[in-house]
Sequence to fold (99 residues):
Amino acid sequence: MHAARWVKANPNVKGDAAVKAVQNQPWDTSVKSLVAFPQILEPMSDKLDWTQRLGDAFLAQQKEVFAAVQRLRARAQESGNLKSNEQQKVIVEPAPAGG
Fold:
């Protein structure tokens, strides 16, 4: 994965600065945004088979993948691991009517 290699080659470029630094790369926007999160990018690069299966599952079952993400978020919140801090603001909104 090119983005993971870029992160390893540029360890002092972090966060928004990293995202700005890769804007001219021919990568998908979603990949460019991941350079700000090397802790996510590294396992995705190290486990390419898993990453490919996850991508395939997402393409084939988007509704189910989104539902699984929401279940994981709910579990994280219930256990006290999903809360607002300096890096994120957690906002809980009701599900849209009918779905």
Summary: The radius of gyration is 16 Å. The chain has a mean pLDDT of 91. The CA atoms of residues 30 and 41 lie 11 Å apart. The chain has one domain: 2-76.
